[in-house]
Amino acid sequence: QKEVEQNSGPLSVPEGAIASLNCTYSDRGSQSFFWYRQYSGKSPELIMSIYSNGDKEDGRFTAQLNKASQYVSLLIRDSQPSDSATYLCAVKSATPLVFGKGTRLSVIA
Amino acid sequence: SAVISQKPSRDICQRGTSLTIQCQVDSQVTMMFWYRQQPGQSLTLIATANQGSEATYESGFVIDKFPISRPNLTFSTLTVSNMSPEDSSIYLCSVVASNSYEQYFGPGTRLTVT
C-alpha cells in the first residue's frame, strides 16, 4: 500500500518565522510531488510541485525533495497569519495522487 | 491552470434520495477524478472518470452507489444514490490539464443528508 505520512500538527510558529512542513512516502517509484494548501471550508489549492532532487523556490515557498530518503518538505519563509491552513503533501507514481492527511499550520501574530 | 466549476455548491438532501453533482472545466483535460472529504479528514479518491467509458472505482466505492459519467473532455457528473447521513461530505472534482502533471481541484459540493 502506497503511503504518504505527515505530522498532523498543529504546527504553531510566530509571525515572521520559518515554517517547516515534512512528508515521507513509501513508493520509491514516485516521480512527482506536490504541496497543496487548504483553508478551512475551501478546496485544496496547488502551491508547489517538484519533480527532481533539490530545492525549488517560489516566492516565500521552498520545496525540497530527497528521493533517496523518500522525503519532501515545504519551507515557508516570513510566515504570515494568512498562511494558517492545512498543508497536504501529495505524491504520484503510476497511480492517481496519494495524499497525506495534512499538517495544520497556525501562524501566531 | 484549468478553471473548474461545480454545481451545486451545497445541498441538503433527504435520506433515500439521489443528488447529481456537475463538474465543468474551461479547457480540455486528460484526467478527471472525484474525491470525497469528510469533516476533519483528508481526501479520499472515489473514482477516475474516463471519457466515453465506465469510471474506474477505488476500493470501497461502487458504481451503483456513485455512478459517474464523462461524456466529453471538459464535463463530468457524479451521482450520490440512495443517500444516507454517512454520505454527508464535501465532494470534489479534480483534473489534470493536458501537457501537465499538475492536478487541480474544483470548489467542492457540500452535501448534508438528513
Give a quick rundown of the structure.
Chain A is mostly beta strands.
What would you call the structural class of chain B? mainly beta
Low-confidence stretches of chain A: none
User: What oligomerization state is this entry in?
Assistant: heterodimer
Gyration radius of chain A, to the nearest Å?
13 Å
**Count of DSSP E strands of chain B?**
11
Distance between the termini of chain A: 40 Å
Order of helices and strands of chain B: EEEEEEEEEEE
**SSE run of chain A:** EEEEEEEEEEE
User: Terminal Cα separation of chain B, in Å?
Assistant: 36 Å
How much strand content do the residues of chain A show?
over 45%
Characteristics of this structure?
heterodimer, A: 109 residues, mainly beta, 6-stranded mixed sheet, 5-stranded antiparallel sheet, 11 strands, B: 114 residues, 7-stranded mixed sheet, 4-stranded antiparallel sheet, 0% helix
Could you explain how this protein is built, in words?
The complex is a heterodimer of chains A (109) and B (114). With 109 residues, chain A is an all-beta fold. In chain A, 0% of the residues lie in helices and 55% in strands. Chain A contains no helices and 11 strands. In chain A, the strands form 2 sheets. In chain A, strands 2, 4, 5, 9, 10 and 11 form a 6-stranded mixed beta sheet that branches. In chain A, strand 7 (61-66) and strand 8 form a beta hairpin. The radius of gyration of chain A is 13 Å and the shape is globular. The model of chain A has no long low-confidence stretch (mean pLDDT 95). By secondary structure, chain B is mainly beta. Chain B contains no helices and 11 strands. Chain B has strands at 4-7, 10-13, 19-25, 29-37, 43-49, 56-57, 68-72, 75-80, 89-97, 103-105, 109-113. Chain B is globular and about 40 Å long. The N and C termini of chain B lie far apart (36 Å). The mean pLDDT of chain B is 94. At the A-B interface, strand 4, strand 5 and strand 9 of A face strand 5 and strand 10 of B.
